[in-house]
Amino acid sequence: MAKLTESMTSVFEEDSMEQDVESPVTIQQPKLPKQARDDLPKHISKVCTKRKIQRYVRKDGKCNVHHGNVRETYRYLSDIFTTLVDLKWRFNLLIFVMVYTVTWLFFGMIWWLIAYIRGDMEHIGDNTWTPCVSNLNGFVSAFLFSIETETTIGYGYRVITDKCPEGIILLLVQSVLGSIVNAFMVGCMFVKISQPKKRAETLVFSTNAVISMRDGKLCLMFRVGDLRNSHIVEASIRAKLIKSKQTKEGEFIPLNQTDINVGYYTGDDRLFLVSPLIISHEINQQSPFWEISKDQLPKEELEIVVILEGMVEATGMTCQARSSYVTSEILWGHRFTPVLTLEDGFYEVDYNSFHETYETNTPSYSAKELAEMASRAELPLTWSVSSKLNQHTDLETEERGKNHEDQTERNGDVANLENESKV
Q1: What is the DSSP string of 48-68?
Q2: What pairing do the DSSP bridges indicate for beta strands 270-271 and 232-246?
Q3: So what's the pLDDT on residue 105?
Q4: Residue 167 and residue 160: Cα distance in Å, rounded?
Q5: Which residues of the chain have pLDDT under 50?
């Protein structure tokens, strides 16, 4: 048994040495069961090593772009209102509370300093002394009086007297600044709550885009819908192709944007979005998908960004909804399942089938190849017509030649008869 173990060890060592000599760099394959290894496709390595496409716009419409090394940060403070609106809710509420608290404490401190400097704290309870603010006996009461002044509550217990000109001036300043703070912060909160992008949450896009034949032409299609009964006014749709390219001069342009025509010249990009609509892009010579076939589509690294814009009917504010489709989300040879049915006196939309598609007969060739095949199919007909026209022209020429010869012979016969008669 020991000899058998030693012989097996020596064999393994020889095999490993031979392997090291033949290939100094060895690649360790993943340990898989035998059945999995047998069923493993040959192109699995290509699929595993294929780089994952990074989205430019996420499915929820948020742009996957982070701005770094921004040195001119003062520009954010120059537009402080928009900066506050763009903040997250927790920071916005924190700033809202802090602004009011700081202003109340600041003016409360000034009220207390005025009372302290005038000596009101030393004559508390003295009926012969006229203080600046009645019943103000410390910092807490000064803070409460500041809140009452700025919020115009006026409980009637602490009131300012007419023997304090500096207090009257401070009252005017706090009233004006308090009104400005209220307008700014309440306006910020109102805009934050009524942002039109919240309306975009009820605008939905299909999970996948499809490519199939429509009216004899290869088209790229996706579906949009509105979940609310209040409509989007002046709704319009546009699409962009995001794909890196290299110019003829060798310049590399990352994330180059190309327009995708979804009915700009025909007016089909302006939508009456009452029920879900299928947006179609005809793949023609001006289309960026002109030379892309079914087999080539998975190899492309591209992204389609769709943008739906319009005005909210209830508020009149403009809103925008966005989504995107990467290569893996474009289904070749599919169509969308119908969602609109006619009921008793109304149309019903079934949103359970909004994202569903079904397969249909679609050629796997690109639109360019289909156009070339169609042109080649028409060539024999053109040749036959031209050949017939040429044959007809040759026959007419031959007939004209025969007629000319007959006429010449007749003229010769007539001339001979005249000569004979003269003789």
Answers
A1: HHSPPPPPSB-TTS-B-----
A2: antiparallel
A3: 96
A4: 7
A5: 1-50, 381-389, 408, 410-411, 413-423
